[in-house]
Specification:
heterotrimer, A mainly alpha (283), B mainly alpha (69), C alpha/beta (286), A: 283 residues, mainly alpha, 14 helices, 0% strand, elongated, B: 69 residues, 3 helices, 54% helix
């Protein structure tokens, strides 16, 4: 299957990015802009001495801490971006195998020698590895600008700003954590990814209603027929928010090779296989 | 095997049903094997067993009167 | 050599509607085959089935493969242009070239660019900014730069003005067709392509009603313009169709020896368009 070959696969990933520029690039960029403007406005409201004191405090508060220890604090400003990432990925997956059937461009895509497996996998890989990279890039620019602005501010008030450089390193390290967390969270949520892709490929209209409706229905049916709630139980076991953030490398490895993660990958694979075969039913 | 494949891949509906059945089977099996709690939410509905003639008794079970509280 | 397309008993329903109702046909290698039928006859469904874009029941082999199972392998040897503008609207021209180049082993970017140089299509425009005619030009340029065994065209010139239509067939036959590849083209504008075709397939209500090589037509079908006094004689020979023209009648006969028709008038081979109407109307009359 040559659509799994690097050159072809990269072309497929490039397609996903170009086709979804609005969700992957424009949305976080706009968010970054809005938050930056808001922050600048807030700063401009504060009196000068307070600002100087604030900058000074920032540059020394991290003394003695390693970047690894400081980094988690920088996941805080990243929270709105994390939320946006989830929202955008959700929309993307529901449309991924639906939109091109709706606007008929599927007849072009399917007239190319690209296998259904390659097509679906490229969308999965986009979610796991590519989209977080764009968010990291945008956050990097934001942090860079923030550090520059704070340094200039501090210098104008004659405050020691060398510590800000140290803080910046921590911020960069937090971006690394952001990416790894997003990567692992996506793997953890592979069953959800598969579920959304399955219904994206299946639905003739309103995939979101199908994806949600069938899920609720399944839960009710299981209870009615078997009296059990394994579906609900399983979903609940995966919804603990703490499972999604990773604070250091050993934690990441732990997550990755845990039984729950691996079982989730199996379940995700089942649903993704369904989506791949479902791609045959184009009309 | 070929026959089975043809039935599953007959149309999008048969494929969806098959995928979901396999998914649920795997989940439920895993739940059983790893000893997950079978029930998470209690969906029992007291109104389900409601009998109009027992109205008085029912009322008492739902809203205990002040002098009983 | 085996036929490049072998179809037996193709069936497809959309709800209650039978788009294909037991379709049987074959297409020989190297032919230019016209699939002609009225709207709703099943042309589009048939062609989509050939490239694995429509799931049908029955036996189907295209270039030795089953399109339902090996679509992506088949697409290395087969190209498809649909009637609607299916190139993705947000793509830029040069991005489409990049994509096809990375994805298609038989695509020659240089050839595509040479062809595009003869058009007015700018390289960095988005496809949604191009006119319908330009989109078809672009799609044809892409397809012509791929070395394939079979080209499947579903009403490729629908809605285009005459200049683009003429140019399309010009390029297709002069620049592209080399006798080795096969072209299957569907249309309901019969007159436009009848001079190009080597084989004919008429389709109506999901069935094939005629399957013949163009060169055989003159041996099978005859059209004679007949005066009123000979109508009865003509009817006796069992025509499949007639139409009135300027006080006379043009009768079309199938499998009737031309020597027998000589007394009635000059026999000629009907045009594909007239034959098409004859087969369709004639069938309905029975």
């Amino acid at each position: 299957m040559n659509s799994l070959l690097p050159a072809q696969f990269v072309a497929l990933l490039r397609r996903e990015v170009l086709e979804n520029r609005a969700l992957f690039i424009a949305a976080p960029a706009v968010l970054a802009l809005v938050l930056s403007v808001f922050a600048l406005w807030a700063i401009s409201m504060a009196p000068g001495e307070q600002l100087a004191a604030g900058v000074e405090y920032l540059s020394i508060m991290f003394d003695g801490l390693s970047p690894g220890e400081m980094a988690p604090m920088f996941l805080m400003p990243a929270i709105p971006f994390i939320m946006m990432l989830y929202a955008c990925v959700l929309i993307y997956l529901l449309n991924a195998l639906y939109q091109d059937r709706k606007d008929l461009s599927v007849y072009f895509w399917q007239s190319m020698p690209v296998s259904n497996l390659g097509t679906v996998l490229s969308k999965v890989v986009t979610v796991i590895a590519v989209v977080p990279a764009f968010y990291v890039a945008i956050l990097f620019v934001v942090y860079l600008l923030a550090v520059t602005a704070l340094s200039l501010l501090g210098l104008s008030y004659d405050v020691e700003v060398a510590g800000l450089g140290y803080m910046f390193m921590a911020a960069i390290f937090s971006l690394f954590l952001f990416y790894v967390s997003a990567f692992l969270a996506a793997l953890w949520l592979l069953p959800t990814i598969g579920w959304l892709l399955l219904f994206s490929a299946f639905a003739k209209r309103t995939p979101v209603l199908w994806a949600l409706g069938v899920f609720i229905l399944l839960g009710l049916v299981e209870d009615l027929i078997f009296g059990t709630q394994f579906l609900g139980n399983w979903v609940e076991s995966r919804s603990n928010f703490r499972q999604y953030i990773v604070l250091d490398f050993p934690m990441a490895m732990d997550r990755l090779f845990s039984y729950d993660m691996l079982f989730g990958l199996v379940v995700g694979a089942i649903l993704i296989t369904g989506a791949v075969y479902m791609r045959r039913f184009v009309d | 095997m070929e026959q089975l494949k043809r039935i599953i891949l007959k149309d999008r509906y048969s494929l969806l049903v098959t995928t979901i059945v396999v998914y649920m089977a795997v989940l439920m099996l895993e739940g059983l094997l790893t000893g997950r709690e079978a029930r998470v939410i209690d969906l029992e509905n007291p109104y389900f067993d409601f009998n109009v003639e027992d109205w008085e008794r029912f009322q008492q079970t739902r809203d205990p009167s002040p002098d009983q509280a | 050599m085996t036929d490049i397309v072998e179809a037996r008993g193709l069936r497809k329903r959309f709800g209650d509607f039978k788009a294909l109702d037991g379709l049987d046909f074959s297409v020989a290698r190297g032919s230019i085959c016209g699939l002609i039928g009225p709207n709703g006859a099943g042309k589009t469904t048939t062609l989509k089935a050939l490239v694995g874009l429509s799931d049908v029941e029955g036996d189907l082999r295209v270039a030795g493969r089953d399109p339902r199972i090996s679509r992506h392998k088949l697409m290395e040897e087969v190209c498809f242009i649909a009637d609607v503008g299916i190139l993705p609207k947000w793509f830029r021209v040069n991005q489409v070239l990049d994509y096809v180049e990375s994805v298609h082993p038989r695509f020659s970017r240089q050839r595509a660019e040479e062809i595009l140089a003869t058009t007015d299509i700018p390289a960095n425009k988005r496809i949604k900014e191009l006119s319908k005619g330009m989109v078809t030009q672009l799609h044809l340029a892409l397809v012509m730069a791929i070395d394939v065994q079979l080209l499947v065209l579903d009403e490729p010139t629908l809605g285009l003005d005459i200049i683009y239509r003429k140019e399309f067939y010009d390029r297709l036959l002069n620049d592209y067709y080399d006798g080795n590849c096969t072209i299957i083209i569907s249309t309901h504008q019969v007159e436009e392509i009848e001079t190009l075709l080597s084989d004919l397939l008429f389709i109506d209500n999901g069935r094939i009603v005629l399957d013949a090589a163009m060169q055989d037509l003159e041996n099978i079908y005859s059209e004679v313009l007949i005066d009123a006094q000979h109508y009865a004689e003509a009817e006796q020979l069992g025509p499949v169709y007639h139409r009135d023209i300027l006080g006379k009648r043009a009768y079309i006969f199938e499998a009737v020896d031309r020597t027998r028709l000589r007394e009635l008038g000059e026999a000629a081979t009907p045009t594909v368009a007239d034959l098409f109407v004859a087969k369709l109307r004639g069938a309905n009359r029975e």
